[in-house]
Known about the structure:
3 helices; 65% helix
Amino acid sequence: MMSATSTLALTHFVTLADSFDKNKVTPGVLGFIVFAVIGGAVWLLMKSMNKHMKKVDFEEQPDGGEAGTTTSAATPATEPKTS
């Protein structure tokens, strides 16, 4: 059962809902706060990723004989068939 105060509160909400322009609805302060929090989170993630990427020590394999000897020792070379 609804009390008199809840009925009165609902009537005020209905009149406030009819007073705004339905063709001009903006996100307002809450939308800005959510957007700013998401932007801050992305900035912090990018900063953290940059710090972790600087720690990576990546060295390429040399193009010389070292790379060729390790692969040829692991797999036997097959000779091409000649007719």
